[in-house]
Amino acid sequence: MTDQSSSVSNQLTADYLVIGAGAMGMAFVDEILSGDLTATVVLVDRYAGPGGHWRRSYPFVSLHQPAAFYGVNSENLGSGGKSLASGLEVVAYFQRVLERHVASGRLKFFPHCEYVATAELNSDFTSTVTGEKYSVDVKRKLVDATYMKVEVPSMRPPPYRVTHGLEVVPPNGLADISSPYEQYVVVGAGKTGMDAVLYLLGLGLAPDLITWIMPNDAWLLDRGNIHPDGLLLSLGKQQEAMAKSETLQALLLNLEADGMLMRIDESVWAEKYRCATVNREELALLRSVKNVVRAGRVVSIEEGQVLLEKGSFNVPKQTLFVDCTANGLSNRPIVPVFSAQKITLQSVSMCQQVYSASLIAHVETAFSDLGMQNKLCRVTPHPETIDDYLYAVGIGAMNNASWGKHFPKWVRNARLSFRSHIPTWRLFMKIPHMTKLAPLVAKNLQTISQQRALEKTPAENPERQSEGD
Questions:
Q1: Residue 407 and residue 399 in contact, taking contact as beta carbons nearer than 8 Å
Q2: pLDDT tens digit string along 408-457?
Q3: Across-strand partners of 114?
Q4: Are 100 and 79 part of one and the same domain?
Q5: Residue 457 placed within a domain
Q6: Which stretches of 244-352 are DSSP H helices?
């Protein structure tokens, strides 16, 4: 590469410049191009193709929710229904969607390119292969599809000290095991940690050879309830639990009693909620691992010893450490989704990122008033704690009411929407009962929120966005 080639500027023109071809970026682009047949898009990503973190995930990864409502609105993923498509299937799916839209002539895709945000909004990006620079004349909006900062362990080194020579691998490394170890230590209790434990058990490893470092316990969703045929029943049970619960503890326990939530250890109160899903069979396997260390996060891994925030434990020399600590979807600060020149993709439906991105795209095409757009897209940050869950439920209720009022037909027909998978006649039969419970649900949620606010110090209770933001 010469200095002359690196200074070449390629001028492009498009209605939208979308930064990031991950799942949210693809869902947004698909809906924009499907909803506005005149729209043009320039899509930029640092990887060789679309799919974002799916391209860096461990080879045994699969969807954690049914394929029926994952991907993009315009095309089914795999066999749909309850199917949990593999990571390879997901990457291939996004590649097909991309190629179809590129073939339309309204989408231009630039892989291996880096966009660097600046204080002033810019529309320039650079190829990481050739060094060529590109500038886009953006007619409508710049779209940041990277704000959620999805991260998997293979994308960064462990966030704790590791003595040189010790074997610490991301979950990807489990696929390359060529000889047995005396002990396997899984670091992290999120969904990635659960997947790593299940993978090792699935290979026939005895549970007592696994040590699981679990800094926090979390409430888990039973995947058996999250499928097209069971959605209405699940929504009904959730509302009934809220209608009879006047404290957050009672709500969580009632949801657990109804089979909506689960814990790995029912004797340990869970303070986290990250929308992680497992089925009952997987839960039983996870519970078979008895060497669970609850002593906070790892501080350092040293020869023969692991130091944690609240203790330490010894390990054999031949130990494989599996780092599963990346926070796949972190709880990011709320910023307005819509501004005069920019759209920042965030979740507006709890734990439904691709549906959120497609809905934001629909609002962009169907509404022109900035205030109205943001009112329709109140942000529900990805939850990390039980208080985040409570907050997201409240915002979610307001969002769903707004969507039902302003664009019910789109919500009804969008493949990524839960409602599109519920037969209309069943929904109509359930509405009277849910309407009857609604005032009590609203009253209890408000009471619980006030209780939790009083229990927390100002530092523990950061201000969230209000209904009018």
A1: no
A2: 999 999 999 988 888 877 777 877 888 888 889 889 888 998 888 887 65
A3: 126
A4: yes
A5: no
A6: 248-257, 280-287
